[in-house]
Design goal:
Blueprint lengths: L7 E6 L8 H9 L8 E5 L2 H9 L4 E5 L1
Antiparallel strand pairs: 1-2, 1-3
Helix pairs in contact: 1-2
Length: 64
């Protein structure tokens, strides 16, 4: 996958983190997500893509 230097992803937390695995909570925190319906803009990197893939069932992702 080719990633442009200025690629960004808008990530929105749609479901609660309550009762989730500690690793999944850590991924959400690593992405900067704290509240339901909070949206953050993150760089499109392999590390962030991995965290998004791990907790994809909690998120909505839009490329910007």
């Amino acid at each position: 996958m080719i990633v442009l230097a200025d690629s960004k992803l808008n990530v929105t937390l749609l479901k609660s983190l309550s009762g989730r695995l500690a690793a999944h909570k850590a991924c959400a925190r690593g992405l900067g997500l704290r509240r339901i319906r909070q949206t953050v803009e993150v760089e499109d990197t392999a590390e962030n893509r991995g965290m998004i893939k791990k907790i994809g069932y909690l998120l909505e992702v839009l490329e910007s």
